[in-house]
Amino acid sequence: MTRPTFVRARRPEHKQQRREAILDAARRLALESGVRNVTLGGVAADVGLAKSNVVRYFGTREEIYLELLTEAGHDWHDAVVGRLRQTTRPGDVVTVLAETLADRPLFCDLLGQLSQHLEHNVSLTAARAFKETALQLAGGLGQAIAQAHPGLTDDEAVELTHLAAWLAGCLYAASRPSPAVAELYQQEPRLAALCPPFLPTLHRALAALAAGLPTLRDRSA
Amino acid sequence: MTRPTFVRARRPEHKQQRREAILDAARRLALESGVRNVTLGGVAADVGLAKSNVVRYFGTREEIYLELLTEAGHDWHDAVVGRLRQTTRPGDVVTVLAETLADRPLFCDLLGQLSQHLEHNVSLTAARAFKETALQLAGGLGQAIAQAHPGLTDDEAVELTHLAAWLAGCLYAASRPSPAVAELYQQEPRLAALCPPFLPTLHRALAALAAGLPTLRDRSA
């Protein structure tokens, strides 16, 4: 199997092309086999570079995926804000959040990997860039959600956004059983009740949270 | 450094002792460095056995931790049921769930590892034993919660139990920043708003869910 052989990129546009090629490969491999199964060596081989060359662009495997998570976060933000502009019923907020997450399996996979893996083995610079973006996107989403759902304050809307992201990450993993567990569910359908279907489970949890968060205000007053 | 050297266990009580020694080592190492950082080789070295000897008792590293999760699940179930017996106010249910989880860091760590790691690389037999226990414990917790909180049906109480376990798993990881992220939070305290404190975040989410789940009944009727 022949792979394109790269020479060292010297011009800025070539460096940018190479960065994009690395991100494309990491994205494609993660969609094929799940983020957790992709190694830096696998990305390097896919893009036709030596590992030592890939780390000139991204210091570690985790930094590549933190960059893809940032990109996917912007994409999710824009999709939610876009759909909420056309929304008139407050209840649609939950549907928009749940459906836009269900439409983005790579984003959900990355969210599930974030605290345990992607934030480890990264530089302070990469961590800072990621957290700045996360704070800004959560704030933007909170504003858009509070505007579309007058029953929620800005703070509650930001809280709902964070909970949506955490739940999407863990439900993504929980809704995709391992081979052994999938075989078990086939043999014992009554145990399959433990496997949460992603979209309905997330939708119901977010609907409950959106209804429940405002009821907590008086207690803390 | 000398380690106890074991000869092959032949009598049932010796086999049981050896199983317990392996579980003890895996538990202690996970509490020290986090479940994700413990290897089968590390457990074997700690207990003074060869890896090939450990796998006579547990087929894989993941089966050891699935066994510890089962044990921790029983312990959580008993603690919740015990505390709920002395409870008179429905709102206490959420406090009991959140506090008993916060008191059990190893359980929360294991819950966060479950779908992505512990259910992979296990035998069908180990997966079945674990899922049977999970179904039974969730049912028992659901009953105890619904009895203490008359505003929740049995099904809603089981749902709350599952959501508590998923949230505990992801909040445990999210509330413990990596070294790079911890350094960043120290440099930029405003970014630390992204780090959820475990107990208050879990308590508030569960309180919102307990208040919100019953409001969804009419919509689906």
Please provide a written account of the structure.
The first copy, chain A, has eleven helices and no strands. The radius of gyration of chain A is 20 Å and the shape is globular. The first copy, chain A, has helices at residues 12-33, 40-47, 51-57, 61-85, 92-102, 105-118, 124-148, 154-174, 179-187, 198-212, 217-220. Chain A has 221 residues and is mostly helical. In chain A, 73% of the residues lie in helices and 0% in strands. In chain A, helix 1 (12-33) packs across helix 2 and helix 5 (92-102) packs antiparallel against helix 10. Chains A and B meet through helix 6, helix 7, helix 8, helix 9 and helix 10 of A and helix 6, helix 7, helix 8, helix 9 and helix 10 of B.
**Percentage of β-strand residues of chain A:** under 5%
Q: In one word, what is the shape of chain A?
A: globular
- What is the average of the pLDDT values of chain A? 93
Q: Which oligomeric state applies? A: homodimer
State the helicity of chain A in percent bands: over 70%
Helix/strand structural class of chain A: mainly alpha
Gap between N and C termini of chain A: 67 Å
Biggest sheet statistics of chain A = none
Specify Rg of chain A, calculated over alpha carbons: 20 Å
* Number of strand segments of chain A: 0
Helix and strand run of chain A: HHHHHHHHHHH
Please outline the helices and strands.
Two copies of one chain form a homodimer.
Chain A: H1 12-33, H2 40-47, H3 51-57, H4 61-85, H5 92-102, H6 105-118, H7 124-148, H8 154-174, H9 179-187, H10 198-212, H11 217-220
Helix pairs in contact in A: 1-2, 1-4, 4-5, 4-6, 4-7, 5-8, 5-10, 6-8, 7-8, 8-10
